[in-house]
Each structure stands twice: as C-alpha cells, then as structure tokens.
Amino acid sequence: MTTTPNTTSSPTTPTRRRRALAVGIVGLSALVPVALPAAAGAEDSRSAPPATSEACKPFTHARERIAGEITRRQATIVELVASLQAASDPYGVNGGQVAALQSSANGLTALGQQISTACYPDVASLRADAQKVLFEHRIYALRVPQSRVIEAADRLGTARNELQSVADALAAEVGDDAEAKAELDAMNQALADADSAIGRPPTLTGAPADVVALEPAQDLEPTRAALTAARDAVKSAHQDLASARDHAKAAVAALRS
Question: What is the pTM of this model?
Fold first, then answer.
C-alpha cells in the first residue's frame, strides 16, 4: 500500500531556524547583564590606594627618639622653673625667664604632637621638624645656662642687700675710729665694684642683663660669647662681695678692740 505524505506538517526551513535562533539570543540577553563602559576618569579604588598613604613613611624609631628628647627637655624646664620660682629674685627678672621657659614647654608639646602624627615622605622632611627642637627652643644651649646666670645673680643680689644693711649699721658706729672707718670705706668700694659688674638691686646691668635678653638663635657664637661675659661678671661680683664681707668683719673687729 502506498503511504500518503502528511501535508499538515511542513518541513523546517532555513528562515524559520534563523527566527528561532534570534528569539533565543534575545532571551539570553535578558539573563546576562550587559557590561557598561566606565565613566571617564573612574578607577577601581581597590587597585589604587590614596597617594598620601603611599608617600608617608613610618620612621618609627626616629619619632621615638625625638619624643624622648622632647620629654627630656620638658623635664629640665620643670626643674628650672621650680628653682627660679623659689629664688628671692632681687633683680625682678625671674618672672620673665619663667614665662620664656613655659612658652618653650608649650612649643615642645605642640611640636611633639606634630612629629608623632605628621606624614613624612622622606628623611629630609622629618629632619626639618626635628631640628626645630634644637633651633627654636635651645633648652641646653641657652635656657639652662641663662637660668643659671639668673640664679647666681639672685644669690649675689641678696648678699649685696644684706651687706648694704651691715654697711649702714657700721656707718652709725665707726665714729672717729680711724681703723674701723678705713675698713668701712674699703667695704663700700667693694660694694660699688660689685655694682659695676652686675648692678645694684633692683636693677640688673652689664653682661648678666645682656644674657637675660637673649633669645634662641641658630648661630650660637653670640650666645656663647654673652654667656662667657656674664659668667665673668658674676665671678667678679662674687669676689667683690666676698671682699666687702671681709672688710665688714675687720671693721667690727676694730670697733671691739
């Protein structure tokens, strides 16, 4: 028997296959997200950390050493301030020195905070701030010897006032005693010599007064010269006052003889 072909089912033509493939591609495009181009200038933040974090160097050991030097200077300032505040201050200069020292202490504190937190890309930038510890405050090159000169002047000024009281008392006692009067005259001359070296309280003069006026400087030669002159003046005044004391004792001995 002859089989009759099924006329209701048409064969798949190339055109129908292309249509089905196109439909499939459209369906896939709905499931797969389309990659969009990046905006101009946009970067993946995970692959490019901020430039500042790359530029900053830790310098941990150097920062710790600088912090230690600042702490040492601040401890020295505390000692100097306590000593100056406890002194008699016959010349009235201690208050200014205390204020200068406290200003340096505050400056060192601020500098320490800056150095501990700042970003330093290289050694030179760190060194620039570290040198401020030396050049902007000069605790050991200036403030310490400057304070010692002031303290020495305090002691000499106090002794000068006490010897003046002795001289005034002797002036009322010597009368016609030639020997006692000669000793008193010598005592007064020694007091005058001391005054010419450092000044009579309450006025500080000469090289010690020049030292009191000094401020921190990078060039230390003028500072050293001024400190040397002040020490010489203090030493000279000390010798003069010792001589005045010896003449006072001689005058008393003459009055008792």
Answer: 0.75
